[in-house]
Amino acid sequence: MAHTQTTEGSAKRKAPQKGNFGRIIKMLFEFYPTQSCIVLLCIIISAVASAMPSVFMQQAIAVVTKHFTSGNWEAAQPEIAKIALTLLSVYVVALIAVSVQAQTLAKLTQGMLMSIRNKMFNHMEDLPIRFFDTNKHGDIMSYYTNDVDALRQLISQSLPSIITTVIGMSTVLFIMLWYSIPLTLIVLAVIALMALVVKTLGTRSAQFFLAQQKSVANVEGFAQEAMSGQKVIKVFTHEQATQADFDKANEELFQASKSANIFANMLMPILFNLGNLAYALVALAGGFFIINNLPSPSISGAALTIDIAVSFLTLTKNFTSSVGQVSGQINSIVMGLAGAGRIFDLLDQKVEKDEGYVTLVNVTKNDNGELVECSERTDMWAWKHPHHDGTLTYTPLAGDIVLDHVDFGYSPNHTVLHDVSLYAKPGQKVAFVGATGAGKTTITNLINRFYDIADGRIHYDGININKIKKADLRRSLGMVLQDTNLFTGTVMENIRYGRLDASDDECIGAAKLAGADSFIRRLPDGYNTMLTNNAAQLSQGQRQLLTIARAAVADPPAMILDEATSSIDTRTEFIVQRGMDALMAGRTTFVIAHRLSTVRNSDVIIVLDHGHIIERGTHDDLIAAHGTYYQLYTGAFELE
User: Does the domain at residues 401-634 carry the CATH identifier 3.40.50.300?
Assistant: First the structure.
């Protein structure tokens, strides 16, 4: 199994854009404005409070120094007590602010993540099939796991820490300038050196953390692909090759993680020692100014004294350690922004365009024989077509489908269908025959508008399908695919998936029609048997019977059967075929089949070759023509 990655997927895993940070803040205030304001206010209070002890320390030392020479300690006690009580009050307010911040932030973070996951899933449901065809499912799952978790750390830890640190540093810087401008310049010089180190090592570390985030998505995507393909891996004894591919992906993750953590672990010790350097330089400079009675300009205008110098040393330690705190959050911020960038890339994916305005409605006939729309479900459907003049027309849903000179390609430079024209009258059974890649499934994808045609037109009951809302178009088409997809739930729930308002009796009737009722009743809990892991406890044929029953309960006027019986044995196929014949009766049906015995009774058989229609006609006509179909049917050459 090759470890590949699509170009589109690679393009999406780019470095986080600068605008992502602002976009996160905007979403926080958009989804939770009150909680965001409360958290921000609490952060400001706690950040300012964290810088105040140095000020009170300076005041306390000044009081002690003033009364030291006089020896009147009794006069100092009230002043010291007042300073201590004020500081205690500041700490109490800070404690309350931190407590409120922690509780509010927890609710804000989890609520934000819930909103984002809902937004992602709702948006994903509106994405075109092309997105899922060009992206690994494991990689898509990584949006909901790794990327959301990285965003959680950013919102709950890194972002509050950064805001607290920035506000605290701003407060400390102002106090330092208030006390001494020369000493502040010394600290800022060391801070500039620390910033250079952060830029050099932090940038390298961030690059590798970004690579780590991408590698995690690759490993998860590969593991998911390997798990879903275990039977194929074992059948072809590719365990060692698969292990080698996984080891390669895992090695890339290891190298990125190792390099990222090496640079991250180097950064903090260097910053810590540079902070000590700043502390020592301030102590030397302050002592020099005081001993030599040199002037030290400040915003306050006060002279540099012992009490100010001691307080300034504490402020220096606080300021330099804040730089370390900011630097320690860089990697989390980068990973959070990388996760947010991938999430926003998903949210920015263009949704499936739907400019249709014709809808499918239930109708009944009035006394004059005219179609009248009604809210309750009836046996009659019609296309509700609004016109520019405000009038409405109702066209009965019949299943008349016409492809008129259709061209299509999955990419602009590779055309798959060439000038395809065909029609299916109401109730007709049209079969497509041809080798793999001939364009059979592509035609049905175009009828469903999973993809839009490049040229030509497709009409449904005389209406261009571009004018029909996609949901209504697809509601009118039942589809049974070769690959079965059954969801976690009971058998009854999986059948009812075809029409959610179907009653139990209608679901059972659909199962009988498909030939599934007998085996369902033999299950441990019958229709209430729980299915998990794509109904792994059932045989492939039984799973297919359930998907046919699911299509039957939808009761659409048109059906698409894409290799619906290819995974069923001959005996089961005979049972299913009877149910399918009943299911197809009176419905326009498109059948794709490699077993030519299943298309003999089709009204028209269309033979495709590399996107071209090369033959069409009934079974007898094509046999008589002795062309490609005759050679296929008689075994002169194989479909493949």
Answer: yes
| Helix, strand or coil, per DSSP, at residue 368 | coil
DSSP per residue, 274-337 = HHHHHHHHHHHHHHHHHHTT-----SS-PPP-HHHHHHHHHHHHHHHHHHHHHHHTHHHHHHHH
User: What is the C-alpha separation between 26 and 463, in angstroms, rounded?
Assistant: 44
| 15 has a pLDDT exceeding 50 | no
Residue 18: pLDDT band (50, 70, 90) is low
Whole-number pLDDT of residue 144: 87
In DSSP notation, 140-171 reads HHHIIIIIHHHHHHIIIIIHHHHHHHHHHHHH
Local confidence band at 419 (pLDDT 50, 70, 90 cut-offs): very high
Looking at residue 47, what is its pLDDT? 86
C-beta separation of 565 from 544 below 8 A: yes
Token pair in block for residue 445: 């994808």
Rounded to whole angstroms, the Cα distance separating 536 from 125 reads 25
Three-class DSSP category at 371: strand
What is the distance between the alpha carbons of residues 95 and 46, in angstroms, rounded to a whole number?
A: 8
588 in the Ramachandran plot: left (φ > 0), alpha (ψ -120 to 50) or beta? beta
- Average pLDDT (315-329) is 80
Q: What is the mean pLDDT of the chain?
A: 83
Q: Is the pLDDT of residue 16 over 50?
A: no
The topology under which CATH files domain 18-348 is ABC transporter transmembrane region fold (1.20.1560)
Backbone angles phi, psi at 600, to 5 degrees: -60, -40
pLDDT in tens, 164-200: 888 888 888 898 898 889 999 999 998 888 888 877 7
Contacts of 506 (CB under 8 A, 6+ apart): 499, 553
Contact present, 221 and 246 (Cβ < 8 Å): no
Whether residue 582 contacts residue 576, with contact meaning beta carbons closer than 8 Å, is answered with no
Considering only CA atoms, which of 322, 598, 596, 172 is closest in space to residue 615? Answer: 596
User: Whole-angstrom Cα distance, residue 184 to residue 254?
Assistant: 43
Residue 497 has pLDDT above 60, yes or no: yes
Amino acid code (one letter) for 295: P
Q: Is 444 exposed, middle or buried (0-12, 13-18, 19+ CB in 10 A)?
A: buried
Q: CA nearest 469: which of 361, 588, 589?
A: 361
- Going from N- to C-terminal start, the domains of the chain cover 18-348, 359-396, 401-634
DSSP secondary structure, 392-445, as one string? EEEEE----EEEEEEEE-SBTTB--EEEEEEEE-TT-EEEEEESTTSSHHHHHH
For 582, residues 6+ apart whose C-beta sits below 8 A from its C-beta are 513
Give the pLDDT of residue 3. 41
Question: Which residues, at least 6 apart from 250, have a Cβ–Cβ distance to it below 8 Å?
Answer: 219
Per-residue pLDDT at 41 exceeds 90: yes
